[in-house]
Amino acid sequence: FHAQCSQRLQSPRMDLCHVPAAREKGWYLALMAPNVKGPNYAWLDPSRLYCHPQGLQDCVADLLQPFQGDAIDMVAGIDAMGFILGAAAAATLRKGFLAIRKAGHLCVQTVAQPYTDYSGREKVMEVRTDAISPGLRILLVDQWVETGGTMRAAIELVERLGGPCCVPAGVAAICMEDSEGGRWIQERYKCSHCVPPRLQPRFNHHQ
């Protein structure tokens, strides 16, 4: 195994073996790859983080740490990359997982919510009508909160379906940028992300 790891360290392919001796919060952020395809793509690709066994495990642990001891009945992940972290969080908590989908994919009765995503495009998300009952405490998970439009739409769906007694247990994402929408969410809901304070300005400016 160690020989294989040594070979991978010398290879241009992803190194899925190396784990730093001191695993500080956010160490796995360095696994993310920068955008090389231009402005129509996200500025970072977390896929390599998800491929790294210890990186993914530590990322999920850091996201869930602020919710230790909180009442959480279900985890909801937002289409599509939020499915990865959301399902991993649900498995860790031993809770059910609800997929919040982009419109047009669910073949059952749904409730829809229009929103504007981080790129300024108008979209619609949907969730099945029978998954959320009044009083459920739902942890909402996505890969990234940039402008906050996508997450805010998911929050509105959960609150509409669950009624006035259904308050999200919290919001979790690898990064929550210091945008107007990001601040709106953090001021109203318990939030968790993985970016250390010293790195937050760099993430806000996509550096």
TrEMBL record:
Signal peptide: none annotated. One of its GO terms (molecular function) is adenine phosphoribosyltransferase activity. Its main location: cytoplasm. Its EC number is 2.4.2.7. SUPFAM superfamilies: PRTase-like. GO terms for cellular component: cytoplasm. The keyword Iron does not apply. Keywords: Cytoplasm, Glycosyltransferase, Purine salvage, Transferase. PANTHER family: ADENINE PHOSPHORIBOSYLTRANSFERASE (PTHR11776), PHOSPHORIBOSYLTRANSFERASE DOMAIN-CONTAINING PROTEIN (PTHR11776:SF7). This is adenine phosphoribosyltransferase. It comes from Atrichornis clamosus.
